[in-house]
Amino acid sequence: MEPHLFSPLQIRDLHLKNRLVMSPMQQYSSPDGLVGPWHLVHLGSRAVGGVGLVITEATAVTPEGRNTLFDTGLWNEAQVAAWRPVVEFVQAQGTKIAVQLWHAGGKGSHAHPAAGFHYISPAQGGWVTKSASSVSLDKQHTAEALTIPEIQALIADFAAGAQRAVAAGFDAIELHAGHGYLFHQFYSALANQRTDEYGGSFENRIQLLIETVAAIRAVIPVSMPLLVRLSAVDFSDQTHAWGLTDSVRLTALLQQHGVDVVTASAGGFSAPDKASVVPLYQVPYAEKIRAETGVLTGAVGLITTPEQANALITTGQADLVVLARELLRDPYFPLHAARALHLETPAPVQYLRAFPAAGH
């Protein structure tokens, strides 16, 4: 059968029932990095709604890796215990769940969005932010450059976070390496001004991500998929900005080190021209990476209709459709999409009266 939106996908030993993925979306509802009832309902309702894979919001591997004091974490055992019931509920719906591990780097230490999302200093309860270089990424404060020992410690923090993800029962792990956060701060020359082995050349700037992937792959089961979200382009016309050719080259190397899926997002240091932000505007990044590397890709960016999503799979532009805002608007998008496309997907037995099988 030709692949379509509701065809299954095998990634290592992970079986996804369809190609719809819930994108990571920050909830700013986790004091001390702990998830709770909000996350159970937020993530669980999308699993009830029928997505094949839920990816959690960006989850910090250290307290200083957060963007705000209210981001989720996996740096201690209490957080592992808090994640377990959420993971188990999602899985009980026949949906798989991945945790997105993350470090905000120089974009960290901000107030809650409801309080203005401004930088908070250590004296105000924040922390000293660290990045590839001593640069200002939020136009409010300047981060400090990480030392080599600090970089090595961060790689170990990611590996420890991955081990906790396994202990919490997650089906897969995604590394957030885009949107101007730590890994992007290293591989993009817009933020990386280092002159040591982690700066300068393409090979040096990607080294932190490559070493972290290798460290994680070494401590998780061979059967567990490892995903990476990249910013495929920098949305900048500067000659040293990161571009799609760089992302293709990086993806090929990530594949060699055990990465199974790349989600091709974009930006993080600057925004795209508003006129270019149209439906499916980021899909060409996933399509190009997939065509040139053979790596499974996830497509993002103003995908809002069942027909758009299905076409991405049937035409081979991407292997997964990663939805964010549309799933906030409609947790049951997969069930509605199946009906619109005249394709079968089972609704929970509790909801069958609203989603009867075809012909009933």
UniProtKB/TrEMBL annotation:
A matching Pfam family: Oxidored_FMN
Domain of life (superkingdom): Bacteria
Lineage of producing organism: Bacteria, Pseudomonadati, Bacteroidota, Cytophagia, Cytophagales
NADH:flavin oxidoreductase/NADH oxidase N-terminal domain span: 5-342
GO molecular function term, any single one: FMN binding
Keyword annotations from UniProtKB, A to Z: Flavoprotein, FMN, NADP, Oxidoreductase
Protein name as it appears in the record: NADH:flavin oxidoreductase/NADH oxidase
Keyword Methyltransferase: no
Cofactor(s) it depends on: FMN
InterPro entries according to UniProt: Aldolase_TIM, OxRdtase_FMN_N, YqjM-like
Keyword ATP-binding attached: no
